[in-house]
Request: fold
Amino acid sequence: MASLSLVLGPARSGKSRWAEHLARQSGRAVVYVATGSEGIGDPAWQARLDLHRRRRPDSWACLEVEADLAAALMHLDDRQLALVDSLGSWVAHGLELDGPGWDAACTTLLAAIQACPAEIVLVSEQTGWGVVPATDIGGLFRDRLGALEQLLAPVAETSWLVVAGRAVDLTALGRPVPELA
Reply:
């Protein structure tokens, strides 16, 4: 298995820029793996997509996979680095799944990440720091994303927390939270 680096942080923290920096430093052929939808009719979302596109070097390939992240990872090779932006968008695609369907999707994704020959830098949002979601679907999103991040952290070689434009190496500074019986 190639290495997995998690890059976590709240909105507008600089997490995508940090992930892009890690990708540039890798020396590998970068494949930007976008999980978000085009957001047709949403000017604010379109502006964010355009910003990300402008920052990407022309030499980077781009795959727009939406919910098909696991399948996309299986087509990469060991000379590449997959910069996945973002896990939250992938989770949003699965909000309609029932509990067993969601569990199966997460199992498939985790297996694909572990089997992927490419190095992976995975960007993910930290959603539980702010306002408690006012809707059931918002709470479901927050809970599913947080639980999935906790499944991915033990298989990650490195985990970064990006806040206010500063990256903190959680792997070097942090300790795993123990399970309670």
Observations:
- The chain is about 40% helix and 20% strand.
- The helical segments are 15-25, 43-55, 69-73, 87-93, 99-115, 136-152, 170-173.
- The first strand starts at residue 4 and ends at 9.
- The two ends are 31 Å apart (CA to CA).
